[in-house]
């Protein structure tokens, strides 16, 4: 892994999201309440785009499909496939829980850098 400059910091104000490419990876950058996070663009469950995933007040991103939720800082699973009720849990049992990949970021020289 190595640091890559991906975006001017002023292009990602609070509440904004951007997808950037680092090597072969598509990374979702988001600014949640002034804190910048870099996570995999696709859900580790069934590869659905997380771009429109809901962000909760406690720093969790929720997949729009089966609503698995992941800690934005660590990528750890908070809940695995709770939706739709009953069926979601059955679907989730078919594949083991996997964290959402997260990547270190830094802001230097007016730019956002990702270590991916
Ligand atoms: S695709 Fe994200 S939880 Fe199923």
List the topology elements.
Elements: E1 3-8, E2 17-22, E3 25-32, E4 35-40, E5 54-55, E6 60-62, E7 69-71, E8 77-79, H1 87-92, E9 102-103, E10 105-108, E11 111-115
Antiparallel strand pairs: 1-11, 2-3, 3-4, 4-9, 5-6, 6-7, 7-8, 10-11
The protein binds FE2/S2 (inorganic) cluster.
CATH architecture annotation: 3-layer Sandwich
Relative strand content: 35-45%
- Could you say how many structural domains there are in total? 1
Low-confidence stretches: none
Structural class: mainly beta
Shape: elongated
What is the rounded Rg?
14 Å
How far the N terminus sits from the C terminus, by CA atoms, comes to: 5 Å
Helicity range: under 10%
Which whole number gives the mean pLDDT?
96
Tell me about the largest β-sheet.
4 strands, antiparallel
Explained architecture:
The chain is mainly beta. It has one domain (about 5-115): Rieske Iron-sulfur Protein (3-layer Sandwich). About 5% of the residues lie in helices and about 40% in strands. It has a four-stranded antiparallel sheet with strand order 2-3-4-9, with no helix packed on it. A hairpin with a 4-residue loop joins β5 (about 55) and β6 (about 60). The radius of gyration is 14 Å and the shape is elongated. The chain starts with a strand and ends with a strand. It binds FE2/S2 (inorganic) cluster. FE2/S2 (inorganic) cluster binds next to loops.
